[in-house]
Recover the amino acids of this structure.
């Protein structure tokens, strides 16, 4: 149980285009999802916290107009990188919090590798 | 500032050794601590979750301990195998952190035959 999927797993796009990444909790409902960014050989940096039915909360330094997050249902959150540039190339990982139980454990998706040419 | 630090950054050992990976955090007021494994180019696999009220958790050859007062956690890997080669990440949810995981930089482990 507690499986999180991401789609696509890998995307290559031209500079200036927008890219949408989906994060789904497959067998549980997640009122809260998190989006992380990881540069090569570095750790994960939290970008934003996504709550179902409300606006996302962005971490300091993360441009909310650049990284649009929508959490339309209890099983789906999307991250849209708008007008992508080469510096946006990175590994994006989402997680979903298993709420309702005694421990709010997060389960992570497999990640999406974004390459902007 | 709430931070998580992992030592060592990299470790290379022969197969069969028992290993200790270290994690330290700056604020003893934590909600929980998790150890993850990440293979190259992949997502995270949760290994162990320790709640603030617990001292340790065990799963197979893995044992994680938590000492809140000193701000430390250790991940013990018994009888290491080449398949254990990966990056191990420690992450903390600090009290009042609203489920936000703060990650350490990780320890890159290589176990050679």
């Amino acid at each position: 149980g507690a499986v999180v999927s991401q789609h696509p797993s890998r995307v290559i796009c031209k500079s200036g285009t927008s890219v949408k990444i989906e994060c789904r909790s497959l067998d549980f409902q997640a009122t809260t999802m998190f989006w992380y960014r990881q540069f090569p050989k570095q750790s994960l940096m939290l970008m934003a916290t996504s709550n179902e039915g409300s606006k996302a909360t962005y971490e300091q330094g993360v441009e909310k107009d650049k990284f649009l997050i929508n959490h339309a249902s209890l099983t789906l959150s999307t991250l849209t990188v708008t007008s992508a540039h080469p510096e946006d190339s990175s590994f994006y990982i989402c997680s979903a919090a298993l709420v309702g139980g005694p421990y709010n454990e997060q389960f992570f998706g497999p990640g999406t590798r974004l390459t902007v040419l | 500032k709430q931070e998580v630090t992992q030592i060592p950054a990299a470790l290379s050992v022969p197969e069969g050794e028992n290993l200790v990976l270290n994690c330290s955090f700056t604020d003893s007021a934590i909600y929980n601590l998790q150890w993850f494994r990440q293979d190259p180019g992949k997502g995270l696999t949760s290994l162990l979750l320790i709640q603030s009220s617990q001292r340790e958790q065990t799963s197979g050859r893995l044992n994680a301990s938590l000492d809140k007062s000193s701000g430390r956690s250790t991940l013990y890997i018994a009888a290491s195998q080449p398949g254990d080669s990966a990056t191990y990440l420690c992450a903390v949810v600090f009290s009042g952190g609203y489920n936000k995981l703060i990650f350490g930089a990780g320890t890159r482990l290589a176990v050679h035959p």
Chain B touches chain A at residues 31-32, 34, 36, 41-46, 49, 51, 89, 91, 93, 98-106, 108 (CB under 8 Å). Residues 107 and 113 of chain B are 19 Å apart (CA to CA).
